[in-house]
Amino acid sequence: MIEFKHVSKLYSNGVKGLDDVTLQIKQGEFVGIIGLSGAGKSTLLRSINRMHEITSGELIVNGSEVKSLKGIELRKFRRSIGMIFQSFHLVTRTTVIKNVLTANVPDMPFWRVLLGAFTKENKIAALEALDKVGILEKAYIRTEQLSGGQQQRVALARTLAQNPKIILADEPVAALDPVTAKQVMDDFKRINKEMNITILINIHHVELALNYANRIIGIRAGKILYDGPASEVDEDV
Ligand code: ADP
Ligand code: ADP
Fold it and tell me: Cα angle vertex 50, ends 44, 54, to 5°?
C-alpha cells in the first residue's frame, strides 16, 4: 500500500513538483498517471522510492514511513520497488543475462558480475525473469543487438529478478513505436495480474493509459486533477 498524506515537493528553484497530494494505492493496482510534460508525474514516482526527498507531508509505503528509513532498511526498501525508465538504463555491450543478474547481486560491482561472480540460484532467477517477459531465447545475446521493445523487456526482467512489490515506470513506452509500445504494455498488464505487483506508470499517451490501467490519476501543476476508474475518464478532457 502506498499512502500520500498532504505531500508537497518544492524544488530549490521554487517550482512545486507536488502540491498537497493525498492519495492511496492498494497492493495489486495498475495505475496510469497522466498529465502534460512538467505536470509532476516523475516527481510523484521519484518520491515513492526516495530518489528524492519530499518537502512536507507524510508518505507511507508498505508500512514504512519513507522519510525515516536509513541504512539497511532503506536498501531493503529500495529493492522492494522496481523502477523502469524511458531510456532503458542497460549496459548494452554485454549479454542480456548479465544485465538481469545485476538485480540479483545488487551489492556487487558490475565488473564482478561480468567476471561471473554469481550463484547458480542467481542465474536461475535471471532466466526465469527473462522467461516471464518472453525473451528467454535472447539471454546470451549482446544487449545492443536487441530492438527497443526487447531492451525494455530486459529492463523489466531485471526489475522482476529483484522480486519487487511495486514497479514504478516513468514513460516506459515513450521511445517505442505504437505496436511495440502495446506489446510492452501487455507485459506490464500480465505481470500485474499474474504476480499481483502494484504498477504505477507515467504515460503521456492518454489512450494507451485508458486501455491498460484500471485507475487513472491526472496531474497538473503538481495537483491531482482526476483520480478514478479508467472506464469513467472522459476522453475529451
Ligand atoms: P532539489 O531541489 O531536489 O535539490 P535541484 O534544484 O538542486 O533539486 O536540481 C537537481 C538537479 O535537477 C540538478 O542537476 C538540476 O540541474 C536539475 N534541474 C534543475 N531544474 C530543473 C528543471 N526545471 N527540470 C528538470 N531538472 C532540473
Ligand atoms: P513530468 O514528469 O510530469 O513531466 P516532472 O515531475 O518532471 O513532470 O516536473 C514537475 C515540475 O518540476 C516541472 O516544472 C519541472 O520543470 C520541475 N522539476 C523537475 N525536476 C526538477 C529539479 N530537479 N529541479 C527543479 N525543478 C524540477
Answer: 60
Which residue type sits at 61? V
- Provide the pairing of β-strand 16-25 with 2-10: antiparallel
172 Cβ below 6 A of ligand 2: no
Whether 18 and 7 have beta carbons less than 8 Å apart is answered as yes
Among protein residues, the one with the nearest Cα to ligand 1's atom 4 is 12
The ipTM assigned to this model is 0.76
Q: 64-68: which pairs have CB atoms within 8 A and are 24 or more residues apart?
A: none
| Edge-to-edge strand ranges of the sheet holding 215-220 | 81-84, 166-170, 198-202, 30-34, 215-220, 223-229
CB of 115 shorter than 6 A to ligand 2: no
Q: What is the pTM of this model?
A: 0.88
Strand-by-strand arrangement of the 16-25 sheet:
16-25, 2-10, 56-61, 64-65
